[in-house]
Amino acid sequence: MRSVSTLPVALLRTALMAGLALFALFPLLVVAGTSLKTMGEVFQSPATLIPRAFVWYNYVDIFVRIPMARHLLNSLFIALAAVFFNIIVATPAAYAMARIKFRGRGLFGMGILVVQMFSPVIVLIPLFEMMKALQLLDTYTALVLVNTAITLPFSIWMLRGFFKNIPEELEDAAMIDGLSRTGMIFRIALPLTAPGLTTTAIFTFVSAWNEFIFALVLVSKRTMQPITMALYAWEKNNVVEWNYLMATAVVATVPTILLFLLVRKRLTDGLMSGAVKA
Predict the structure, then answer these.
(1) What is the three-class DSSP state of 235?
(2) Rounded distance, CA 256 to CA 28, Å?
(3) Bridge partners (DSSP) listed for residue 240
(4) Do residues 156 and 203 touch, judged by C-beta distance below 8 A?
(5) Which range marks the domain in which residue 108 is found?
(6) Strands (E), 26-66
(7) Are 163 and 270 contained in the same domain?
């Protein structure tokens, strides 16, 4: 009797979840459908969700008309470099906040939170002037440094929670056995925080991959622009080639989707572990 009575509730829950999933995926369906249309069908009225004729050659055209492969490689290099430097800087900072008692630790942590509250756009003009003075405009270095700095506050707070969850007794026993503080970090703390490192790396990668405004301001050479700038290439003389723009958006989204599929288990573990109150 219980299974029969709960059947309508289960059906209602399934229908609700399916409706929410369709609502969330609808923009993606529009993007994918538009990417396979001709320019004429894009502007026809009434609009169609499914193309009347699938123009797969749009995906070939975007690689022929603009250096798409170079844009993808640029984004990959910038994102991976930002991940590397982010982890290098955030790990010792997070460990120090979690384990080392030093004067001003609370103020330092509060400063990180305050920085995270503001939009990075407010430093756009000063950052441009600074990069110009350092002769770093139109360089990968500028974009790597910017993306590292933008994601650093979140990374420090994320890793701090993982380091706080490591029992202090375990670290004390390791140090009694002769491990130095540095050795204990590399041999004990980092292996135990692998899910946190993975989560932080994915956040940094996706953030750097999707960054647009700083790339628009700091890089003008087409051969050095990331994939987000390729979207900007399809607007000329107030005319937007929407089919090519959407095809470019699909191509730009595929690497991040593949990344999530490859590490979804570790990402879930990392988010669940990081949810524990530190």
Answers:
(1) strand
(2) 14
(3) 235
(4) no
(5) 58-274
(6) none
(7) yes
Q: Are 240 and 222 in contact (CB under 8 A)?
A: no
- CB burial of 134-161 (b: ≥16 within 10 Å; e: otherwise) equals eebeebeebbbbbbbbbbbbbbbbbbbb
Q: Residue 235 forms beta bridges with which residues? A: 240
* Beta carbons within 8 Å of 81's beta carbon, 6+ residues apart: 140, 144
Residue 50 domain-assigned (yes or no): no
Distances 106 to 79, 95, 124 between C-alpha atoms, Å: 31, 14, 28
How many structural domains compose the chain? 2
Counted residue by residue, the chain has a size of 278
Query: Which residue, among 108, 68, 45, has the nearest Cα to 230 in the 3D structure?
Result: 68
pTM of this structure: 0.83
- Comparing 10 with 38, the larger pLDDT belongs to 38
67 with 28, same domain? no
Read off the tokens for 196. 């946190």
- The tokens describing 140, both together, are 């990968």
93 with 213, same domain: the answer is yes
Q: Residue 76: inside a domain, yes or no?
A: yes
Same domain for 90 and 20: no
Q: What is the pLDDT of residues 25-39, one digit of tens each?
A: 888 888 999 999 988
Residue with tokens 């502007």: 43
Q: pLDDT tens digits for 105-155?
A: 778 778 777 877 777 888 888 899 999 999 999 999 999 999 999 999 889
Q: How many CB atoms lie within 10 A of CB 259?
A: 17
Count of CB atoms situated within 10 Å of the CB of 74: 22
- Contact at 8 Å (CB) between 265 and 194? no
